[in-house]
Amino acid sequence: MIKQLVPSERQNSTIQQRDSQPWFPAEWPKAPWHLQALSAGQKLDNSRDSGPATQIKYNNTVGGGQGVNIYIIDSGVDVEHRLFQGRARNFHKCYVDTDGECFKDKVGHGTAVAGCAGARFYGTAQGANIINVKTFFSFNKYMFLM
């Protein structure tokens, strides 16, 4: 039996139930704004003061994106984050490493972007692989680490 996904049901029992069925349709009535925009078919109110944008239900296939690689070119990605469920990895190897943590996301922006792309619950492609292509080594020093 497929159960409708609603925000109040994001508890451990629901997580376990959903993890056993990686592909099933879901509807989230009060999804975050970035997910509502995908199902809207129209421009949404961009005001954060107006509450849930327009109460548009987000239609999604949970687990969608399986087998797809999403490359995140940003400040780095916390590939160990639990919402990536082991689907995140570093692109290659680090050629310049001064502190032993060259792929770590010390800012948090890259991990947030990766979460919007493919994290469990909040990502648009919840089954996709996340590939970390860190682009800056330290503040104000940009470079590709491949």
From TrEMBL:
Comp. bias (Polar residues): 9-20
Database matches in InterPro entries: Peptidase_S8/S53_dom (IPR000209), Peptidase_S8/S53_dom_sf (IPR036852), Peptidase_S8_Asp-AS (IPR023827), Peptidase_S8_His-AS (IPR022398), Peptidase_S8_subtilisin-like (IPR050131), Peptidase_S8_subtilisin-rel (IPR015500)
Keyword Phosphoprotein: no
Keyword Protease attributed: yes
Signal peptide: none
Keywords assigned by UniProt, alphabetized: Hydrolase, Protease, Serine protease
Pfam family, one: Peptidase_S8
Region feature Disordered, mapped onto this chain: 1-23
Record-level Gene Ontology MF annotations: serine-type endopeptidase activity
Entry coiled-coil feature ranges: none
Domain Peptidase S8/S53 per the UniProt entry, residue ranges: 65-135
PANTHER family (UniProt xref): CEREVISIN-RELATED, PEPTIDASE S8
Protein name: Peptidase S8/S53 domain-containing protein
Organism: Aureobasidium pullulans (Black yeast)
Phylogenetic classification of the source organism: Eukaryota, Fungi, Dikarya, Ascomycota, Pezizomycotina
